[in-house]
Amino acid sequence: MAETMFLRVDDVAKELDVSTAYAYRLVRRLNQELEEKGFLTIAGRVDKRYFYERFYSTKNDDEGRG
Q1: From CA 28, how far away is CA 56, in angstroms rounded?
Q2: Long-range contact list for 26-30, CB < 8 A, 24+ apart?
Q3: Crossing angle (nearest 10°) for helices 20-36 and 9-16
Q4: Distance (Å, rounded) from C-alpha 63 to C-alpha 44?
Q5: Choice between 30 and 2, residue whose per-residue pLDDT is larger
Q6: Has residue 34 been placed in a domain?
């Protein structure tokens, strides 16, 4: 399967070990930040690179990940 550029809410919940409800709030917040910067977003999904940049201060999500 091809690598996707988005994380879904369930992926965010699993990655951060939080509830699905909290993951929805995080995804909405991250998407709001992206919209304020002029980017288009998809409800319930967040750009994978932006997610890792905001939570782990990395520009590349492949660092240290398998």
Answers
A1: 18
A2: 30/54
A3: 110
A4: 25
A5: 30
A6: yes
Give the residue carrying structure tokens 């909405």.
28
- Asked if 20 and 13 count as a contact pair (C-beta separation under 8 A), the reply is yes
Structure tokens at 22: 């909290």
Tokens linked to 54: 């905001």
- Structure token pair of residue 41: 């977003």
Residues 22-44 have pLDDT tens digits of 999 999 999 999 999 999 999 99
Q: Alpha helices of the chain — where are they, by DSSP H?
A: 9-16, 20-36, 48-56
Q: Which residue range(s) make up the domain with 38?
A: 6-56
Give buried/exposed letters for 56-66 (b at 16+ CB in 10 A, else e): eeeeebeeeee
In a 13 Å sphere around the CA of 1, the CA atoms on its Cβ side amount to: 3
Q: Count structural domains, the chain.
A: 1
